[in-house]
Design goal:
This protein is of the alpha/beta class. Helices cover about 25% and strands about 25% of the residues.
Length: about 290
């Protein structure tokens, strides 16, 4: 494994409260079901990536999360989890009094697959005027998940001007994502990421390259990762495992990628991140893999 130096990352996007249940099966209509296990954690793509980055780095605090948490009583559970994992937080709306988005998640024990119902950040959008002036001070990599698009686009533009690498978590297409992608260096997209007019993975890669993005990867769960960069391209196998829980695997992959990126060539950073994500899938919830 390539030696990785301590560094600082900025993670921009969604913050949720995740209520996670382990079950033998999904409930049928009108059925009540007792869970096999339960856990609670702060969630959201940028949030889980920030926690992963913080865990993997030896320098604390190394991860800064920027999003909306607010002051509702449920927010205190999120604050406590992020404090435990030593993630610095910039709350763009500290006086927000409504409940932050809460996800209810059922993980099926036999397959590790998850079913999620949630709200995103559309009810609590932040504006670029709320971004602190020192947001990029000491930052060596930025990850943007697209859930606070206006803020993400402004930070991506600032990071590009300061030659700080910008990584995009392309889980799914969201309106105005192109404003972030114009300032992106690394686009890590799921197989469900389809910009307007794109119908195949080749279309997606052509679209992203047309925006000037140099490094592109398409993840497909347990299937190989397709990647392309100025140095070449190819297909990377991912570790073969029996998953216990796939919840947050993509978020963890992105946080690990940001950790490995500055010290590894692009494909190696992808491979190392895939190994971390595979490890996370062998424990229930999004945190227990870090406690083993």
């Amino acid at each position: 494994m390539t030696e990785v130096r301590s560094r600082r990352g900025l993670f921009v996007g969604l913050v949720t409260l995740d209520l996670i249940y382990l079950s033998d099966s999904l409930p049928e209509p009108n059925q009540k079901q007792v869970a096999l296990d339960y856990t609670l954690a702060a969630g959201g793509p940028a949030t889980n990536a920030a926690v992963t980055f913080s865990y993997l780095n030896s320098l604390y605090p190394s991860a800064r999360l920027i999003g909306v948490i607010g002051q509702h009583p449920l927010s205190q559970l999120v604050w406590a989890d992020l404090q435990r994992w030593q993630v610095m937080v910039t709350d763009l709306q500290p006086t927000y009094s409504e409940p932050l988005p809460t996800s209810s998640i059922v993980v099926t024990r036999s397959t590790g697959e998850r079913a999620v119902i949630s709200l995103n950040a559309t009810r609590s959008p932040a504006s670029p005027e709320q971004i602190p002036a020192d947001v990029l001070q000491g930052v060596s990599v930025v990850l943007i998940d697209g859930h606070q698009m206006a803020v993400g686009a402004a930070i991506a533009r600032q990071a590009r001007a300061q030659q700080i690498p910008v990584v995009v978590d392309g889980g799914s297409w969201k309106p105005n994502f192109e404003h972030v992608l114009h300032h992106t260096d690394y686009a890590l997209c799921s197989a469900d990421f389809y910009p307007p007019g794109c119908q195949t993975p080749s279309d997606v890669i052509a679209y992203l390259r047309g925006l000037g993005i140099a490094h592109i990867a398409i993840t497909r769960g347990e299937r190989p990762i397709d990647w392309i960069s100025p140095e070449g391209g190819g297909s990377l196998p991912v570790p073969s495992i029996q998953p216990v829980d796939t919840l947050g695997a993509g978020d963890i992959f992105h946080g690990a990628f940001c950790h490995f990126l500055p010290s590894c060539p692009f494909p190696e950073a992808l491979a190392q991140a895939a190994a971390v994500a595979a490890r996370s899938c062998q424990s229930f919830g999004t945190r227990r893999w870090m406690q083993l």
